[in-house]
Specification:
By secondary structure, the chain is mainly alpha-helical. The chain is about 65% helix and about 0% strand. It contains 1 helix and no strands. The termini are far apart.
Length: about 50
């Protein structure tokens, strides 16, 4: 395997691994939102402020 083949293989594996890990993280975040939904506080008004 020459340098060009090694470089292209390493690039594809690195970029592919990054995209796969971001894809898995997306599904984990979606699952967490379903398991722990956000509960809005009715006394806070519009919900745009922190603790108002």
């Amino acid at each position: 395997m020459n340098n060009w083949d090694f470089g292209l293989t390493l690039t594809l594996v690195g970029m592919g691994g990054t995209l796969v890990s971001l894809w898995v993280l997306t599904f984990v975040m979606k699952a967490m939102k379903r398991l722990f939904p956000v509960k809005l506080d009715k006394s806070a008004g519009t919900g745009s402020g922190e603790g108002k």
